[in-house]
Amino acid sequence: MTQNYFKYITLSFSAILLSLTSCKRDFASDDYVAYFGGEIINPQDKYVIFMKDNEVVDTIFLDKQNRFIHKFDSLAPGLYTFKHHPEYQYVYFDKNDSLMVRLNTFDFDNSVVFCGRGDEKNNFLMELYLKNESDKELMYDTFDRNVKQFIKNIDSSYAIRKSFYLKKKAEIGWGEDFDLIAKSSLDFHHITKKEIYPYAHQFRTGENIRKSLPEDYYSHRKNVDFNNEVLTTYSPYVRYVSVMLNNLSLQNNRKDLNENSLDNNITKLNISDTLIKNQRVKNNVLKNVALMYLLEDQNMYNNQKFIERYLALSTDEKQEQEIKEIYNAVQNLKIGNILPEIKLIDKNNQNVLVSDRKKPAVLFFWTTLAESHLLSSHKKAAEFKAKYPNYDFIAINVNDTEYKWKEALKKYNLNQFTELHSTDFESIRKKWVITKIHRVIIVNADGTIKNGFTNFFDVNFEENLK
After folding, report:
1. pLDDT at 282 over 80
2. What is the largest CA-CA distance in the chain?
3. What is the CA radius of gyration of the chain?
4. What does the alpha-carbon distance between residue 456 and residue 438 come to, in Å, rounded to a whole number?
5. H or E element: which one contains 299?
6. Nearby residues of 164 by Cβ (< 8 Å), 6 or more positions away
7. Peptide bond between residue 214 and the one before it cis (omega within 30 degrees of 0)
8. Could you tell me the CATH superfamily of domain 11-117?
């Protein structure tokens, strides 16, 4: 993280901050008044959404200077998120904290800087998050290594970040509630890699190394509180549980190495039901399993069996309705159905209809948030286009601002295909069920769906084009 990225704040902004967050201010001991405000450089929306556990607490509008400020008469201490489409980050409030954030949407995560009462904790969380993200970029090659080399590598990486965590904890002196969040960010990143390794290694090298793992390899599981509601929607926890369930299901169903199969996902539901006693936490985990599965296995008979098991275990009617909507959207993308229209624009900001063409088309998706996929998907598309010129290949950018999209077109010289941008990510997510960037949709010349759920890296993909 670049700590000096926004070192200097305008005079008026500082004046607001000082009036709210001066260390000399006496905070009432019997109220939970808190302030949240800031400044958005290059805003992509007119507001910031403030959320708790994926539920909107308030929508805070920007003024003419792209600043915002909001007083909460009573804000419970804890972890919140703030979202400025299409990105979000976490913010932690202790009692009576008054926080200002400044960021640039052109480099969202790297530019986030907090000021005010409670800023040190939040700047630490951001710095640790960025360290973890940098580590993610390096971790995939480590999955090819043997067990000893892998463990040595991840333990060394963990030790460096733990030293950073302990140093900041001593300097800032935060309380136990915040420490749960801080330690979770540190530890879950580490043990997530341990859970991924056995099946990632086998997938990448063909070698099953499970019998070579040390006896205490999974000892970390004993220290995970699977029933802690505070962590229910915290992304490091959500990601860990997801990969752990993958690992356990593949271990239980040794003959079925497809993590997206019906049997493995039914196993994930059953393990979640046994492992997690807290109903709220369990419902969220079940929902995540359901979302992941419905977007992968498009066998309609399997989907029905899976939904029946999910509904038998879930007790959250709101979440069940959301899953049913996804299920219905998947049904609408069956072979032979007309592909629903989505608002898309071209480089000249002109509206484009996918159906307005005379040739069959291959629609693939990309985002600047996944650079490796951006490059690999365009490379694959070029290979297939050379072999099947009777198809139009259409690249659709999602989950980026228009500015980022156009910058990426220049940076990567993306001019070989029809390049379009989705201006409403929620619409494309719901109508085309695009939640994983590797999806490819193939449509016939008449706009009907030939295959709504495939990807370039499927060994049988080319059969769709013949």
Report:
1. yes
2. 73
3. 24
4. 8
5. none
6. 127, 128, 131
7. no
8. Carboxypeptidase-like, regulatory domain (2.60.40.1120)
